[in-house]
Amino acid sequence: MRQLRKIVHVEDDPDIQEVSKMALELVGGYTLFQFFSGQEAIEKSSEIEPDLFLLDVMMPGLSGEETLAGLRQIETTKCIPAIFMTAKTRASDQAALRALGALDVIAKPFDPLELPSQIQALWDRSQHCP
């Protein structure tokens, strides 16, 4: 099974970016590449060759859903697993995000100490790019 090492995180809130960075790098041991916009992530992700996308849903410019759609149009990123992070906690909202092809949805606010294990558990049960 392929190991989870590199995560592209797209989040427009600098505070959430910082907390996520500490949680995923210091606690989880992952390499994190952070972007404030979906457009920037779409433009740079092919160079990074990430193992996973962690996408905020509500962002100015491209939403998380639009960002995922853009990433799915690129040959090198089209099958990389994605997880959405959102404050939308209704079951119907989360089901709609999963229907777009996301592994799952992590609700905000999240526990920074639990975030790495949540992501790893989702990764372990997912299908990966060949």
UniProtKB/TrEMBL annotation:
Known SUPFAM superfamilies for this protein?
CheY-like
| Transmembrane domains' residue ranges | none
Q: What is this protein called?
A: Response regulator receiver domain-containing protein
Asked if the Swiss-Prot or TrEMBL record annotates the protein with the keyword Phosphoprotein, the reply is yes
Q: Which UniProt keywords apply?
A: Phosphoprotein
**Could you tell me which residue ranges the Response regulatory domain spans?**
6-123
Q: What Pfam family does this protein match (any one)?
A: Response_reg
Organism of derivation: Thalassovita taeanensis
Q: Offer one example of a GO biological process linked to this entry.
A: phosphorelay signal transduction system
InterPro entries xref list: Bact_response_regulator, CheY-like_superfamily, Sig_transdc_resp-reg_receiver
4-aspartylphosphate carried by residues: 56
Highest taxon in the source lineage: Bacteria
